[in-house]
Structures are given as structure tokens and as C-alpha cells.
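#lab-general

N.A. 3:47 PM
ok so I finally got the sequence cleaned up, no stray characters, all 131 residues accounted for. can someone with queue access submit it? mine expired

B.Y. 3:52 PM
send it over

N.A. 3:53 PM
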Amino acid sequence: MSWSDPIADMLTRIRNGYGAKQATVAIPHSRIKAQILAILKREGYVEKVSVEAEGKRILRVALRYSVDGQPCVRGVQRTSKPGVRRYVVVDRIPKVLGGMGLAILNTSKGMLTDQEARQQNVGGEVICKVW
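B.Y. 4:20 PM
back already:
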């Protein structure tokens, strides 16, 4: 378990869950992880996110698969890390797979997708890329 980078740990749990064809994944709760998962749910990359409060709070993530059993998340990459933060201005916000993927940014207006950040004309820290 990676305590130095909990967001990378969350993304790895999701990646491994899809690789093992699991239905759900359990992730230790934090506010920033919940915001990232809310974006992934809104964009259709995960099925459901719920909070379980048995002792320590846990985020239970129901993974989403297509009709033929293929995972909806093909890849996920942590961009900004605790050792090397990646900040971008609005002109330099990356397009993942030419707009087919998703970049999640932490901005002054909260957690936003790359499209929402361009619409609101704000830059920020590129947390991760999902495709």
C-alpha cells in the first residue's frame, strides 16, 4: 500500500481490479479521491461509488464493463506526482487520445475534466489521465 501517493494507489487499485475482472474495488476514503471518483462516475468510466462506514470509511467502487466484457477503462496514468507537480495553463491542457480520453485537473474552481477547464478558462494541476 502506497502511503506516499494515495491517489496513485487508488488508480492502481482500479487498474488491477479491471485486470482481474472484479466487480468492485475497495479504496480508503479521502475527499480528493471521492471527487476524482465522482468525475469518473459522471463520465461513465465506473458504474457506482458508495461510502461504507464500518470502522474506517471506505469508498466502494463498482467497475463498469461493456457488453462484451471489456473494461470501460483501457488505461490510467498518474501525471502529477508528489515529487514532481505538473501544472498547466489553459492553452496547454492535454487532450487524451484526441479528446476520446479524459484528463482530470485540480483547479481553483475544484476538480474538473479537461473539457470543463477549457470551458471555464482555468488551468491547474493535471492529476491523471484516463482512456
